[in-house]
Amino acid sequence: ASAVPSLKSAAPGLKSAAFGLKAAPDLSVGAPVEIVLPDYGAVVRAFVARPPAWNETLVNVGRGHGRGAPERRAGWLRKHWLLLDAVDRSSDTASNDFLHHRGIFRDWNGSNEYQETLHFREEGVRALLWDRGGLARDLEGRPVLHPRFNLSQKKWRARWDYDVYFANHAAPRWAAIVDRDWLTSPLFGDGLSQDNIGNAVDGAGSFGDLDARFFQHHLEQTGRLPGYRSRGLGIRGELKQGLVPRLQGVSENEAASIRRQDPVYSEYWRFRNLLQLYSFSRSYEAVKAVAARRGRSFDVHGNQDGFVIGYQPYKVLLSDFVDSIWFESSGFSERGLITRDLSNAWGPFRFEMAEAMAGPRKPILGLSKLEKRTPDLWANALAEVSAGGGALILNPEKDPEGSPERAVSDAFLVFRDEHRALSSAPEGCVTPALRSCIRFRPSSMTRPRAISTRRRCATLGGWRVPSRRGTSPTTCCWCPTPSFDRTTSRSRHCGATRY
User: How many helices (H) and strands (E) does the chain have?
Assistant: First the structure.
């Protein structure tokens, strides 16, 4: 309405009503708004993820980057799009319906991190979140700085001139900012890949006033910690009085044991997990509702971790609330060899964990990247994902055309595409033993030949299986289980009979 006078002065006689500009009516003063908090446990227990049917058969997944127009005209994607099932974080490679017209499912993610203000300048954080909820708080009630993304860090200061703070997705104001990105995603894409969803309970910022209020409500509903409720100190006061003095001068291992045994702290930490699962489920249901109205079968997933999966329960619990298992961690086997001259099982263990988290229905999406890129290390990294049952997420465009690294990426994508029945067959159609034998890599980085049913099983001897014992040539044959019947439509459909 404040624009009306300037409009009238610019064009005398112009009616503001023509633009729908009307002064807002005065609202009568009534009873104060009553905030009714939910039963967090009941909502979380009732939640059931609903993965789309199309994500069950993902084998090769591209990763968007940069500008879409060069990619669409003459880039790697233009030449090799037939190898891909989907493009994660598709960026503007999805524009002009380039992917849609080719039957490639595309992810459309927002700009914000899930639990940090990385894309907000500090003046915006102070105006929108500082005193209005949304930021994570420490035991003194202060906003918590990101340990790496702040002006005290030389690398950060060399590129940026503002601090980044941890946010709290359970706070309505921050959740609304993130949901603004989420709720527009089904209008443009088939899925959502939200960064850092696994870090919602990380860091020191877990003790804000909103969290304390939610915790008090939860305890009253469940009847837990009657002493805590009667003292009325709040979570910060309770821990500063009872727990913090006991942590002075002890080692980190001892401190961790003390925290675990403290009844208030351990109960509060369990509640933090519950609260964040509740908050995530609310956003999930909202974006699924928009997708349903848009007529899209929509996939919700995000980065559950950038490290070894399993050391924090929340990152594993979250698997029941997403449609795909997705993590950024990669290169662990190579990193140990390069930095410490040691071999470790961290890389393969990710996929053991991910397979348990995925169950029979959800795909495993593992981002492939390395700090040190050489053809042999790159091949080993992609073999690890393949042997572990993951769908490759690759962006070959990052390597120059004709480079050895590009040849490795192309060979893996072609190999997996030609044998996709082994990776995407329905549960029960291909035995786990066969999957573990076949999901590896071609023996050379040239284009592998498809295996026909007329060839002997010994042909598989040219392929190699990465394992905890190293990489060795393997000859395998498939002994079908008694329940496998070549005459059933299920076995014919999955395409595995040719093996």
Answer: 20, 10
Residue 180, SS3? helix
Residue matched to tokens 């994607």 = 77
For 64-168, list the strands marked E by DSSP. Answer: 86-88, 105-106
DSSP H or E stretch at residue 290: helix 263-294
What angle, 0 to 180 degrees and rounded to 10, lies between the N-to-C axes of helices 332-340 and 346-358?
160
Residue 304 · residue 317 · CB < 8 Å: no
Residues 6+ apart with CB under 8 A from 110: 178, 180, 181, 182, 184, 185, 192, 194
Which residue in the block uniquely carries the two structure tokens 């003390």?
258
Question: Are 366 and 393 contacting, i.e. CB atoms less than 8 angstroms apart?
Answer: yes
Q: E strands, 89-223, where?
A: 105-106, 191-194
Cβ–Cβ under 8 Å, residues 297 and 54: yes
Give pLDDT, residue 160: 94
Reference 198, options 111, 89, 110, 311; nearest CA is 311
- Give residue-wise pLDDT tens across range 263-293: 999 999 999 999 999 999 999 999 999 999 9
397 vs 386: CA distance, rounded Å: 20
Three-class secondary structure of residue 23 per DSSP? coil
- Residue 193: is its pLDDT beyond 70? yes
Q: Which residues are CB-neighbours of 95 under 8 A, at least 6 positions away?
A: 68
Q: Which stretch of 9-23, 151-165, 300-314 has the lowest confidence by average pLDDT?
A: 9-23
385 — pLDDT class (breaks 50, 70, 90): confident
- CA distance linking residue 447 with residue 15, whole number of Å: 70
- Helical (H) or strand (E) element with 287: helix 263-294
Residue 472, C-beta contacts closer than 8 angstroms, at least 6 positions apart: 464, 465
Residues contacting residue 365 through CB under 8 Å, at least 6 positions apart: 58, 61, 88, 301, 324, 325, 326, 327, 390, 391, 393
CA dist 96 and 186 (Å) reads: 16
Q: Left, alpha or beta for 272 (phi > 0: left; psi -120 to 50: alpha)?
A: alpha
Q: At what angle do helices 404-418 and 375-387 cross, to 10 degrees?
A: 20
- DSSP 8-state code for residue 382: H
What is the chain's length? 499
Task: Choose the weakest-confidence range: 147-156, 328-337, 392-401, 452-461.
Answer: 452-461
Q: How far apart are CA 277 and CA 394, in angstroms?
A: 30
C-alpha distance from residue 184 to each of 46, 60, 116, 196 (Å)? 26, 26, 20, 19
pTM for the whole structure: 0.81
Rounded CA gap, 291 and 455, in Å? 46
Q: Mean of the pLDDT values across residues 460-485?
A: 40
**What is the C-alpha separation between 371 and 444, in angstroms, rounded?**
23
Average pLDDT value for residue range 5-33: 53
